[in-house]
Amino acid sequence: MAAHSAIEAITARIVERSKPQREAYLDRVRRAAARGPHRSTLSCGNLAHGFAVCSPADKDALAGDVVPNLGIITSYNDMLSAHQPYETFPAIIRDAVREAGGVAQVAGGVPAMCDGVTQGQPGMELSLFSRDAIAMAAGIGLSHNMFDAAVFLGICDKIVPGLVIAALAFGHLPSVFIPAGPMTTGLPNDEKSRIRQLYAEGKVGRAELLDAESKSYHGPGTCTFYGTANSNQMLMEIMGFHLPGASFVNPGTPLREALTREAAKRALAITAIGNEFTPAGEMIDERSFVNGVVGLHATGGSTNHTLHLVAMARAAGICLTWQDISELSDVVPLLARVYPNGLADVNHFHAAGGMGFLIKQLLKHGLVHDDVRTVFGHGLEAYTVEAKLDAAGQVHREPVPEQSGDPKVLTSIDVPFQSSGGLKMLTGNIGKGVIKISAVKPERHIVEAPAIVFHDQQELQDAFKRGDLNKDFVAVVRFQGPKANGMPELHRLTPPLGVLQDRGFKVALVTDGRMSGASGKVPAAIHLTPEAYDGGPIGKIRDGDMIRLDAVAGTIEVLADAAEFDARPAATADLSENEFGMGRELFAPFRRNVGFADQGASVFA
């Protein structure tokens, strides 16, 4: 079906806006690809270092330019549950590649931090910047110029966006992303949330809270709620970096290993040495990014991607804006109910039809572009399938059923959960921000209440514990932007604000920081830019100012006399405590050079 007229118009606008940067980027990619197999440019000494530890057979193969060499970039560590399964992947990939007549080497490792571990801790102030550090680390691994293609092993929050930025920086190379999958279902997410709120109210102790958390996060794989990690996997599939049906297969299963072997072999098949050359920089274009944004809206995905998608697009010379994302939200219906937008987890989503059913629905109604390139070939139609194992243990794919396996989790466009997507842009006299509304009840889409100003999240926690917040209010938590302290997630504010909302108070959050990818039921205007540290208007708000957050109209306003508000001096804050400890001193250059939130909050130009 032809693309929806609004989808076509927004895509055309992005193409036109991006032309100068995109044409320059493609010229660089094509010139790099035209140089041919890159090992031919290495001196004998360079090459000898590059294959010193290889087997004699692999050395003979790499000495010429007729055998493809696959570079593996891995984010393996055994502290992070989602990345622990990657420990065994390089051996699987090497074996599969040898079967296909190639060579594979681990080109490098990248850091992978867990926002779940660092929530509310000093280390969270490194989290957003880790994305750009990951991109640079991956670039170092690929800079050896030994490779004809790359596979990227990464799943979680900043890791996948960082790896995508690296893949696009090396856009002359084909790149395949290989997921490890979600952990099996544990304690239901709504029960976990209930225990968190009880703990915030002092009704259960730390032992009960730890028991609930441990039953939720209990084994290898991504956390099962639909936060940034699982939004990443959706994006990689709908944008064509994954093989069809690969995203949500559990670790340690025969199908997971078969998909990994298939991905490694596919990466070899699309090198310049073969007949299906698919360099990442040519493959991913404006239509790919529009498809990604549409998928984000249709599934109620992570607010963090209003930063990451913009930064990823810029790496390919594409100028994606919050306005584009917001306008796409107006025409894309919500088709998935996965916690925190519902009670199900990603395993339930996958069992209900998952990505194959979702993409089929979006294609049927012209809401995504089918005429795109992917690592699997041409066209998104090939992704309307379910991956299974055949009798020989190989991957085979079947068309997804016409009906959802569970309409309460995954529905059709004919009966959507809501008519618009989950993310909207907000503008007003305190700047520009975004809000996730897919989990917010409609009666809470508009909040008008007096401001209570905080300069860090602990101040709000303390006020809650003192009982000072039992009233209608808008919490303004500022000096949390990228230049101030690295833009940490403020997810620890969710339980107390949720408690107050459940008590019947009108509450909302306004901040230049981030919320978790699992942003939930409390209306939150986040990523406010310009940030307070830059003298943004959020720094002029005072206790008692009436604030109106209107997610329907897309506005965020201080209801004050314009001249008086403009004349106010912006607040200042002592941020010296954020400059040292837990590695924060190492990231001072990032804080000094980071761009605005609506430009991706990146240190890259």
UniProtKB/TrEMBL annotation:
Sites where the protein binds [4Fe-4S] cluster: C156, C223
Reactions it catalyzes: 6-phospho-D-gluconate = 2-dehydro-3-deoxy-6-phospho-D-gluconate + H2O
GO cellular component labels: cytosol
Record pathway: Carbohydrate metabolism; Entner-Doudoroff pathway
Cofactor requirements of the protein: [4Fe-4S] cluster
E.C. numbers: 4.2.1.12
A GO biological-process term: Entner-Doudoroff pathway through 6-phosphogluconate
Function: Catalyzes the dehydration of 6-phospho-D-gluconate to 2-dehydro-3-deoxy-6-phospho-D-gluconate.
HAMAP family xref list: Edd
Protein name, entry field: Phosphogluconate dehydratase
Organism from which the protein derives: Neorhizobium lilium
Record gene name: edd
